[in-house]
Amino acid sequence: MKISRGVGVRPAMRRTGGLLCALACLLLSACESIHPDIVKGHTVGEAERAAASADAGREAVTQPAQDTTPERAPRPTAFYEPGTGIFVGTPVEQVRSVGEGNITLNFENTNLREVVKVILGDLLDVNYNVDPAVQGAVTLQTSNPLSKDDLIPTLELLLRMNGAALVTQGGLYNIVPRDSAVRGMLAPQLGNSGLALPRGFTVQVVPLSYIAAEEMQKILEPFTSPGNVVRVDTVRNLLILAGSGPELSRLLSTVRIFDVDWLAGMSVALFTPDFVDAETLSSELEIVFGDGGESPLSGLIHFVTLDRLNALLVITARPQYLEKVSEWVERLDRDSGGAGQRLFVYRVQNGKAADLATVLGEVFQSESGSAVVAPPELAPGLAAMEISSPPRPPEGGAAAPAVVEGPRATVPSLVPAAVFGGEGVALTGGAPIRIIADEINNALVILATSLQYKQVEAALRRLDVSPQQVLVEATIAEITLKGDLKYGMEWFFSNQIGDKQGIGQLDLGAAGIGAIVPGFSYQITDKAGAVRAVLNALADDSRLNVISSPSLMVLNNQTASIDVGDEVPITTQQQQATTGVSTVVNNIEYRNTGVLLSVTPRVNVGGLVIMDVEQEVSQVSTESEAGSLTPTISKRSITTSVAVQSGQTVVLGGLIREQKAVVRSGIPGLYNMPIIGPLFGTTSDEQIRTELVVLITPRAVHDSTDAAQVTEEFRSKMQSLRPLSIPKEEKSDKVEDGEPQRSWPRVGPDEGVTKPTESRTAPSGTVSEVAQDATQPAAIDWPDDALLLSRGSELTAD
Description:
By secondary structure, this protein is of the alpha+beta class. The chain contains 13 helices and 34 strands. Helix content is 21%, strand content 31%. β19 and β20 form a beta hairpin. It is elongated.
């Protein structure tokens, strides 16, 4: 072992710095030769002008100036984006120490521990610790003197050769086996922080910006030693590298070279051919440029056909190749004249194929002006003729030829008939178009030229759109007119409110004054929209009867209908034999009665909903005889067209019905007795007037988000129908404070609400009864803590 320090040491020649400078120059020159024509950040117009200038210069050498062709306009493309063509980064020059070296190391089969003592203890004068498992021998000779900054990298090289590593912890240098250097001794550091690498064995977390972590691992694999790549995190797209300072420096430099924006380097263009299909154009271009073959351009240009758009996507790593591809597309995409019509299939996404075929037939028939709807014919244009055969010749004679009688017919050119009902229609300068609706697959089969199909497809893109939907919420209520409302709601609001206006709602929430459900709330506002009064027509006053409250979801410009009621048989014809057995034959038809609602909404772009409304409420008159086949049906109907903004409510009313009934009252048990009953009671005639009010609220549903909101709102309403939970200790029949427990029996679908078992006036609710009309449900003032369930459910209250 020989260690020399001081004056007798030869000066260190800085050959490594010169070599690195030479290497950098070579790399720059190589990049310039490999990518001589990379234009970074240029636009389409700049590339075309540069190409035109170069072409003009070449023509000026070989041809006279007057023969120079003008600059040709570029072929229009659906999408054109040239890339940078750069797929590797610039390597970072390694920073070397600039101090003069004065240390020469000479070890000949020296124990590794002795080498560590000389470098760390004698030369660097630092604290160190050597793991007992670290063993080995070292042979090293430095021809040129080293500086102190070079001692640690040199020691790390010797340790790696012997399976050991240098780990720094604070001011202590630990020499440990390489396998155990990572676990429990190192804290990872960020690899792209730009800070200098610390001394010793470290762990670096390297996040990747553009390249996948697994792909970078494959690139680093030839440059790494076992244990350098600790982990590949594909979720966060990062690498965890471990190694000494020189090792990590080389790995990080390699990562910077390959972690570049690959997509920015690629050049992409989308071509839409006019006369050929994209598949044919792609196969012809592959022959020209040798994509997938043994040509030198193999793999540099990729062609992807998009059948849905009939387009060709071109991807290349060299931006100048897009210009070449564009030139060849223009050469190949030509109308040869003999190509004629081709078969296209359009998949209908939102509408019906038959409806679209009918619309397109009418559109193109009106454009051509020559299509005439005619029934299909067999051999159109041919004259009738007769074909006959002569009698059979005698034995041994030759057969005579068949004789064709009638005029000679000339076969005309046949015009293909369009399946949607008329003759084939032709656009200007083209052959007739045939459009066939495939209803099973909901597709259109179109026989046309490429130019004709482009016009048909443009129309289909505008016709085949997602239809809007409309949620129609209707409430059909019947209001008993008495007191201030005896002349009708319209008269009341016109004469009692003055210049105010009303907005009808079923539940005003916090805006209602004492609003109690169930109840019909009518909000009164002035012209400025300020709330002036709220009318709550409560059920306890026997003034409101909600007949039906349907909700319908219907497509735009489609009819939705709802029918709730009975089918009533009606005799339309009666026959009876005049002789023999007098059998009576009746022809019976069924008439729908009940609640009939039909709505056809139309939504415009501003959210205005125009509705055609047909509303009918009908029933068999009580004056009809039971079992009669010619009953009297009383009905109230509305047929109108209204316009309202989406989400607002329109009120239709004014249909007043008047009924007369006989009301008997008196001493219970006595006034019903025969003969003497009138002595203990009174009989009076009562006139009942009711008004039918229809409230319709349309809501336009434009997309799935609106549909989800409507569904969630309906779900929240259904949550309110949960039955009330009554504590067991309160479910008692004992009388408390002079008031018995109230319970309401089950109500069938065709039954009215009967009175409670014990009916008497209580502070929290009242029950009223109309004795003359048993079919009408009695209106009950439910307590504040009661909940109205659907019909057919048992109603209970605390």
